[in-house]
Amino acid sequence: MLDTSNLKTESENGIMTFKGARYELTESAKQYIDLHYKEKYSLNALAGSLFVNGSYLTRVFRKCTGMTPLEYHNRCRCEEAKKLLARPDLSISFIGNEVGFVSSAHFSRIFKETEGITPSAYRLKHM
User: Fold this and answer.
1) What CATH superfamily is the domain 73-125?
2) Residue 21 class from Cβ within 10 Å (0-12 exposed, 13-18 middle, 19+ buried)?
3) pLDDT for 94-107, tens place per residue?
């Protein structure tokens, strides 16, 4: 008999619903990204590790989270960068490299797109 207890979730109105395969796929993709955020993003590698098509994964991921796997990947990198930006002894370039960006210019652009502020301005604001 299949154990479905881990697939149930309670909604706001108290009705039990099933999370389903799409939810499980999305959670697996998030776990993979959380472990590999420092690596260069590859939809094919991500989808291949989950044994699904990249287009399907992107569609399901966006439906469940409101963002694409790439956007989630960048958000993970920026969240880690925010922790490192609290350390004034680390340069912006080093932090970008540490969280997986090849160049500080790319890091700054993605950080600003994600957070709405440059890494330097974020550091000054949160010190």
Assistant:
1) Homeodomain-like (1.10.10.60)
2) exposed
3) 999 999 999 999 99
With residue 9 as reference, give the H or E element that holds it.
strand 8-10
Hey, do 20-70 and 73-125 end up sharing a CATH topology, with the first three levels equal?
yes
* pLDDT (tens digit per residue) in 104-120: 999 999 999 999 999 99
Full-model pTM:
0.82
Phi-psi region of 119 (alpha: psi -120 to 50; beta: other; left: phi over 0): alpha
In this structure, CATH architecture of domain 20-70: Orthogonal Bundle (1.10)
Rounded to an integer, what distance in angstroms lies between the CA atom of residue 82 and that of residue 123?
8
Is residue 29 within 8 A of residue 57, CB to CB? The reply is: yes
